[in-house]
Amino acid sequence: MSTRMIIRRLGGGLLVLWLVSILTFLLVHLIPGDPAEVIAGENASQADVERIRTELGLDRPVLTQYVTWLSGVLRGDLGHSLFTGKSVVTSIAESAPPTLVITIMAIVLAVLVGVSAGTVAGLTQGSRVDRLVSTLATLGIAMPSFWLAMVLVSIFSLTNPWLPATGYADLGEGFGTWLSHVILPSTALGLATAAELARHTRGCVADVLTRPYVRTARARGASGAWLVRRHILRNAAIPVVTVLGLQAGRLLGGAIVIEAVFGISGLGTLAVNAVLQRNYPVIQGYVLLCAVVVVLLNLIVDLAYGWINPKVRTA
């Protein structure tokens, strides 16, 4: 991909982030309830509520509040929590590690299982393996992640106490302890994406097998792993990479549900608590972070296109 195209993508991404910031700011302020009343408590007088609203700047026009917040964002300051006074950047940094670890592990699991199963199914169309993979992929897509999480906890934590049912352990507590705490949530989060990738990979591989260049390569004696890697997977990869980019953003949002099931204090817990408390700065910071991640993922997908298919670099 050319430098000009990358600059255009970045410019488009910045425009998206600006529109997201406007929409988020307006929608957040439409949430029923007043943060000042929550902070003041049920027995507070109206004068106390008004004083708190003034201290927090909530009595100013919405446009003024947005401009003040946006100017802070451009300086790297997402504001401070209305309840704790802690910096939103600090709150996100403290809550991000569990969510990022679970999401990345889920992506790795989805790629390894989904692409492998889909490739095997595509290469053996019509066989029992193909039908088995297709059936499991359909079931995986249909199963809600929270239901799968509860099933995994029931089997591997309650019935058979092999893995912890709740909580998160840092890597500093030991690799085995860390791994035991991330296996179940990562599996519950990543299996649906693995099923989606398996289905798309299977279809793409089956389509590539019918292309003339594959038949020509076979006629010239190409076979086995070299044929699969050089001609089949490389040409089937672009649609799969597109799906993976879309699913990766979905996984970050799906982590909210998984964290609730496994009792993990991550970004999802931070976002849910912020919504319940009407903690505007934290909500806005979380949504903006998710938007940044999605924009970066789209850019990575575009760059991957150029690596997979050199023709795209000059497009």
TrEMBL record:
Protein name: ABC transporter permease
Entry's Gene Ontology cellular component terms: plasma membrane
Family to which the UniProt record says this protein belongs: Belongs to the binding-protein-dependent transport system permease family.
Chief location of this protein within or outside the cell: membrane
Domain ABC transmembrane type-1 intervals: 96-305
Organism: Acrocarpospora phusangensis
One Pfam family this sequence matches: BPD_transp_1_N
Top-level taxon in the UniProt lineage: Bacteria
PROSITE patterns: ABC_TM1
InterPro entries: BPD_transp_1_N, MetI-like, MetI-like_sf
